[in-house]
TrEMBL record:
Residues 494-531, 590-652 form a coiled coil. The keyword Coiled coil applies. SUPFAM superfamilies: P-loop containing nucleoside triphosphate hydrolases. It comes from the Bacteria. Keywords: ATP-binding, Coiled coil, Helicase, Hydrolase, Nucleotide-binding. GO terms for molecular function: 5'-3' DNA helicase activity; ATP binding; hydrolase activity. This is DNA2/NAM7 helicase-like C-terminal domain-containing protein. Residues 858-1048 form the DNA2/NAM7 helicase-like C-terminal domain.
């Protein structure tokens, strides 16, 4: 991107601050499922110990040699001593675990892999911070190379083979000691640093991936900083970093003009996601879809504000449908699908030579990735899209797109679960490995076997089950016949939707023109009337002029006749000669007659000129009258055409016809409606969605051979850490082939860089960021750099990003680079915050100080009953949300536990945040629910539709113990197991009980909010919970139908935002 960036230097400092802050984010090496084998003086090397030798079921064994390990708990305690933060333990989960100073990958015999030496950032940065050397943190990359070289110097090569020899215990201890001194660890920490090893069995004979050692974002931040320095970033990332001038903002809530423009049928995608029962989007959902579709035509970023229960996923599904359709339009241009694959190239990968085809450039840019820092959020979307329950069930025949393969990708792997292969859960290596095994290699349902059967059929060979189930074409000719049929059906459906939307767009334009044209009709009618009057006046004037002229002509003729007669009486020659009296008298009369003729002729001439002028004026008046009449007729014709366009649009749109009356509805009715898109057009859009997937399916069948080659290589890429250089240049084409078959992929930001390693600037078509309010601003930088278009969805009024670094230290780090942490650092700033800054379309929410500008807001809330809805709407959204929760939903919890209320539990004399009486009341409610389920014979005995949540970690820990004891007593009393296993019990406690922070994105029929912190000495904790509306907003909106607040009413009623809660619940009950 070329542009004259005015504040590039500031942003380079921001990138440096982000990078340095990530050095102190301590991802921990996954040791909980692996035995840490200590390496002590005099002990046997683990890789030489027979008890750790490779077993029969293992293809290979590798070792992670950890050169010392820093205690995260100890390090955190020291950082907090230096940078004090009172409520740190509530903001961050308990810091624990080991952080290696460095890690070396060893083979089965203990020989180091010289390409896999990793230096941990946290211990090095931690040491600098303790020594007040914050300014040196930016030098990590240089220091890393030096530390690696120091290690390499001590790894002895085998003289005979030139490869390293197995490490000894003495060498490991020496390396650990030298590294500890190199990074200047404090003595008390250095004494605790002991090396250990992790045994890593592998199913393939290849080195394992090293993860969870350093921040996942360091490499991307470094790469993007260099790109920023060269001004080589795409529009999406530029908009994210540079933002927009506030003067460019348009408030879509207050400005109906911009809203109408965006919702125009001509801006509406031709396809949509046909959900179960085919519901339409709400007004602002459709606005967000149209805005993203138009704004991101070629590149860019759009921001969407999604309060709880407003249908973020529903909105994103329509964008998925739009992108699938866009690619289908390109697919339909190929007479033969194989023509979309060209220039095959042979490239070594793993243990074979792969053939890779380049994809036609027109098919690049349709890749869709859903990303978030919240693993559950992204998996929810990608696991939901393929499910039958997410698609209309009244298609005849039903929509099916490789459903038998998609069934194998579900958690339960049951047949009939899915409608199609719409999405894949990728990201971390376990997800990638699981996907590859199920999608590609699965013996009965793998895509590999399907494409082989279609692309290279063997005479007489039995078809694999997947080919039979999917009714694969028997040969290439049948595949091409199906292709041409699918293409014709698609084009017909596309033409129909195009025509329908065009009809609606003409109607919309006609409505806009109607008032102006009505005025035009009135004005032309008045003009014609005036012209007729002028014509009449001119004709009367002409008639008068003609009468006067004729009279003058008659007088001229009379005068001439008189003179002629007089001339006939002229005296004779002698009278003239002698000038007699008679002659002189006649001569006088003759002169008078001549003068009279002259005067008459002059008068006639004057009247004739007047008559001629009047005649011209009449002709002009007639012409003007004819013109005015024609303009009046044209205006009437245009009005008739306008009325006809409006009538056609009205017939097509029905109640959705967006005439002036439509926009005059009450706000509640308007927000719940969708302008223009009536049942007929929605059905047509649904049908086009189906035809688009049918076209994709037929394309895959007809291009099975090149797709089999590319997908086979892509599966190896998903399992391989390092790539051949030739393969890197073709990686985009492999991904495009993959996304052609599987339209949507999900991943966390943490796995994004590794998953899409090798892809560069704007080489991913679409990025959908979910729960962006929870993500640190730097976590999305690499993803935004790689994408061409980004739709950022989140809510700054819910849970903020979690960072493990003490806040005073974050402030110090950013100020070291001259960067305002309040503008660029988490937890104050999130991905959503920066995306909102770069959005010209949105609205303002009243924050604690200045108004908060958010992206295009979704407003219709369909999750919570009252009073939860109104509490949230009042404390966080200034009444922006519109209530649309379905009425009269059955609520079993309400039948058992009663109505929503505040259960007052006094605790003014209790020290700490945990209140045992509150625990007792919580246990009572749980046991009442369990007892009723036991009476009714319901399974499971312990309800899954009640959450126990709290603002405080200490309360959550104690509450789990308290409820566990209560359930144990209940089980003992009834002599009935409440859970089938200890694992199921632990899962229930992990799933149903916790802090508010851990429950964003979840919902339950009922929520029991255990407040804790009732005592006087806990006033600070209470004010911490109420410092912003975010925490309470998330808490109350987890509850769909019932909310039970347990806490000291008098202690909490005056706390900001909780005061609204206390008033809404009508006071305490007991």
């Amino acid at each position: 991107m070329t542009s004259s960036f005015s504040n590039k230097e500031e942003l380079l400092n921001v990138m440096d601050a982000w990078y340095v802050s990530e050095l102190l984010q301590p991802p921990r090496l996954a040791t909980e499922k692996r035995k840490c084998i200590k390496i002590l003086p005099g002990s046997l090397e683990p890789w030489a110990d027979p008890k750790y030798a490779r077993r029969e079921d293992e293809r290979a064994v590798w070792w992670f040699l950890c050169l010392g390990a820093l205690s995260l708990r100890t390090a955190t305690r020291k950082l907090l001593q230096k940078f004090r933060e009172e409520m740190y333990e509530e903001r961050v989960s308990s810091a624990d675990g080991k952080i290696p100073l460095a890690l070396i990958v060893l083979d089965e015999r203990g020989r180091p892999d010289l390409e896999q030496i990793f230096i941990s950032t946290f211990p090095w940065a931690y040491s600098l911070v303790l020594h007040d050397r914050l300014h040196d943190l930016k030098n990590f990359q240089k220091v890393e190379q030096t530390l690696k070289q120091n290690i390499l110097q001590h790894l002895r090569p085998d003289p005979s083979h030139g490869s390293p020899t197995p490490l000894t215990v003495q060498e490991v201890l020496h390396l650990t000691d030298k590294l500890t001194r190199s990074i200047c660890l404090p003595k008390e920490d250095a004494h605790q640093v002991k090396p250990f090893a992790l045994r890593i069995p592998q199913r393939r004979n290849e080195p394992p991936e090293v993860d969870m050692l350093n921040s996942f974002f360091l490499e991307d931040l470094s790469t993007v900083r260099k790109a920023l320095e060269r001004e080589n970033i795409g529009l999406a990332l530029a908009r994210y970093l540079y933002g927009l001038d506030p003067a460019e903002r348009r408030d879509v809530v207050k400005d109906r003009t911009v809203l109408r423009e965006i919702l125009a049928p001509g801006r509406t995608p031709k396809s949509r996601w046909p959900g179960r029962n085919r519901p339409s989007l709400s007004l602002m959902q459709q606005c967000a879809v149209n805005h993203a579709a138009r704004e991101l035509g070629k590149s860019g970023m759009a921001s969407v504000n999604g309060p709880p229960g407003t249908g973020k996923t529903t909105m994103l599904r329509d964008l998925v449908a739009k992108v699938v359709l866009d690619r289908a339009v390109v697919l339909a241009a190929f007479d033969h699908p194989e023509a979309a694959f060209r220039s095959p190239k042979r490239v070594p990968i793993r243990e074979r030579i792969a053939t890779i085809y380049r994809v036609d450039p027109a098919l690049l840019g349709f890749e869709m990735v859903v990303a978030s820092s919240n693993n559950q959020a992204v998996e929810n979307i990608s696991r939901q899209l393929p499910l039958c329950q997410e698609i209309a069930d009244d298609f005849d025949p039903p929509i099916r797109y490789f459903a038998s393969i998609a069934d194998r990708l579900t958690v339960k792997q049951e047949d009939g679960m899915t409608w199609g292969l719409a999405a894949a859960v990728l990201g971390n290596k376990d997800n990638r490995r699981d996907f590859v095994e199920r999608f590609w290699w699965e013996q009965e349902r793998g895509m590999k076997h399907y494409l082989q059967a279609v692309g290279s059929p063997k005479d007489g060979a039995d078809l694999p089950a997947v080919a039979v189930i999917e009714q694969a074409p028997k040969d290439q000719n049948e595949a091409l016949t199906r292709w041409h049929t699918a293409r014709a059906n698609f084009r017909n459906s596309l033409e129909r939707v195009t025509n329908l939307l065009h009809t609606l767009e003409l109607a919309r334009e006609a409505l806009e023109q109607k008032e102006a044209n009505r005025m035009d009709v009135h004005q032309t009618a008045e003009a014609a009337k005036k012209a007729r009057l002028i014509q009449q006046q001119q004709e009367e004037k002409f008639a008068e002029a003609e009468r006067l002229w004729k009279e003058a002509a008659e007088r001229t003729a009379a005068a001439a006749d008189d003179r002629k007669a007089l001339l006939a009486l002229r005296p004779n020659f002698f009278a003239r000669l002698f000038s007699t009296n008679a002659y002189r008298h006649w001569q006088q009369r003759a002169e008078e007659a001549l003068a009279a003729v002259s005067i008459a002729r002059e008068e006639e001439k004057r009247y004739k000129e007047q008559r001629d002028r009047a005649q011209k004026e009449v002709e002009q008046a007639r012409t003007q009258c004819e013109r005015a009449e024609k303009e009046r007729e044209n205006a009437l014709r245009r009005m008739q055409e306008i009325e006809e366009k409006i009538d056609r649009g009205r017939q097509l749109a029905g109640d959705c016809f967006a005439d002036p009356d439509f926009w005059q509805q009450s706000e509640k009715d308007l927000e719940r409606s969708t302008p223009w898109l009536g049942p007929d057009i929605q059905r047509a859009r649904d049908e086009l969605f189906k035809r688009a997937f049918e076209l994709h399916r037929a394309f895959v069948d007809a291009a099975a051979k090149p797709l089999h080659a590319n997908l086979g290589t892509m599966m190896a890429v998903l399992r391989t850490k390092s790539l051949h250089p030739d393969l890197t240049t073709l990686l985009r084409h492999l991904w495009a082939s993959f996304f052609l078959v599987v339209p949507v992929v999900s991943t966390t930001f943490a796995s994004f860089g590794r998953l899409f390693s090798g892809l560069g600037k704007e080489e991913i078509g679409w990025l959908f960021i979910d729960e962006a309010g929870q993500a640190t601003p730097q976590s999305a930088v690499g993803a935004l750099w790689r994408c061409r278009r980004a739709v950022v969805v989140g809510d700054p009024m819910q849970i903020e990003p979690v960072v493990t670094t003490p806040l005073p230290l974050i402030e110090a780090l950013f100020k070291q680079f001259g960067v305002d942490p309040g503008q660029w650092a988490a937890p104050w700033i999130s991905v959503q915050t920066l995306a909102d800054r770069g959005s010209w379309l949105g609205t303002s929410l009243m924050g604690e100080g200045e108004p908060i500008w958010v992206g295009c807001p979704l407003r219709v809330h369909r999750r919570c009953d009252e009073p939860m809805f109104s509490i949230s709407n009042q404390i966080a959204y200034n009444g922006l949300m519109v209530f649309a929760t379905p009425p009269e939903r059955p609520c079993r919890t309400g039948q058992v536990l009663g109505e929503t209320r505040w259960i007052d539990v006094k605790g003014e004399n209790i020290d700490g945040k945990w209140s045992p009486p509150e625990g007792e009341r919580s246990a009572e409610l749980l046991l009442i629910a369990v007892e009723r389920r036991l009476q009714d014979g319901l399974q499971p005995c312990v309800p899954n539709d009640i959450f126990f949540i709290t603002p405080f970690r200490q309360v959550a820990f104690k509450l789990r113990d308290h409820l566990r004891a209560a359930l144990a007593d209940c089980q003992k009393r009834h002599q009935i197991p409440l859970f089938s296993s200890e694992e199921e019990l632990n899962e229930w406690f992990e799933r149903q009980i916790g802090t508010i922070h851990t429950f964003q994105g979840k919902e339950a029929e009922a929520v029991i909010l255990v407040l804790g912190a009732p005592g006087k000495q806990s006033l600070g904790a209470r004010y911490w919970a109420g410092k912003s509306p975010n925490l309470l907003n998330v808490a109350v909106t987890r509850a769909k139908q019932r909310l039970y607040v347990i806490g000291d009413f008098s202690a909490w009623k005056s706390i900001p935002y909780f005061s609204t809660l206390s008033k809404s619940l009508g006071g305490p009950s007991h």
